[in-house]
Automatic annotation (TrEMBL):
Keyword Transmembrane: yes
GO molecular function, one term: acyl-phosphate glycerol-3-phosphate acyltransferase activity
Biological processes per GO annotation: phospholipid biosynthetic process
Name this protein carries in UniProt: Glycerol-3-phosphate acyltransferase
GO cellular component terms, A-Z: plasma membrane
Record-linked InterPro entries: G3P_acylTferase_PlsY
Organism listed in the record: Micromonospora terminaliae
Signal sequence residues: 1-22
Keyword field: Acyltransferase, Cell membrane, Lipid biosynthesis, Lipid metabolism, Membrane, Phospholipid biosynthesis, Phospholipid metabolism, Signal, Transferase, Transmembrane, Transmembrane helix
Superkingdom of the source species: Bacteria
Length: 203
């Protein structure tokens, strides 16, 4: 496979990740701009808040689907390039050019990509979501799953799996810490820690 083919597939993964399904569904179902709802996250959770269960389920399937599609599209690339492609679908989702750099948290497209390439990683991420939900706050569960993703994949799948896990975990963690541009200037390192664990400025 040529370098041009590699580049085109990586670009396609980024573009696919950038498609803002949550924003489009929220516009159609509730005439809402998710960038102006709550903390500005453009996500399935935001869709649930403004439009209810069915639109939420639709966005979940669409966002998981774009991650899975990207993973299938890049599955024959070399391991390092494949990891980059998986990371790019999450980057596109988190900082979509269609939303002037706004976006989601990358969990659902990462889940889709992992389900295709490394199902153990998908199980880790899903376990974090469900565990957090059971405790009444999915944010700490997602944080724990994202931080454990790379080492657990290294143990179960070796170096290539760990590289893939790191590529999808890094933009998810970065977006949690960076926020959506709607927060004030952070006062201390504690603010960053609170964002990382609880996905907000205040616990």
């Amino acid at each position: 496979m040529s370098r041009r083919t590699h580049t085109s597939r990586l670009a396609a993964a980024l573009l696919l990740g950038s498609v803002p399904f949550a924003q489009w569904v929220a516009r159609v179902a509730a005439a809402q701009d998710l960038r102006r709802v709550d903390n500005g996250t453009v996500s399935a959770t935001g869709v649930f808040r403004v439009a209810g269960h069915l639109p939420f389920v639709a966005v979940c399937l669409l966002d998981v689907g774009k991650g899975a599609t990207a993973a299938l599209m890049i599955r024959h690339l070399p391991p390092g390039t494949r990891a980059v492609g998986a990371g790019l679908v999450v980057v596109g989702h988190n900082w979509s050019p269609f939303l002037q750099g706004a976006g989601g948290r990358g969990v659902l497209p990462a889940l889709g990509a992992l389900a295709v390439a490394h199902p153990t990683g998908a199980a880790v991420l899903l376990g974090g979501i469900l565990g957090g939900y059971a405790r009444g706050d999915t944010a700490p569960g997602c944080f724990l799953a994202q931080t454990l993703l790379t080492p657990l994949l290294a143990l179960t799948g070796g170096r290539r799996a760990a590289l893939f896990g790191a590529a999808v975990a890094a933009p998810m963690l970065a977006k949690r810490i960076a926020g959506n541009g709607t927060y004030g200037r952070p006062a201390s390192a504690r603010t960053y820690w609170t964002r990382a664990v609880y996905d907000r400025d205040r616990r």
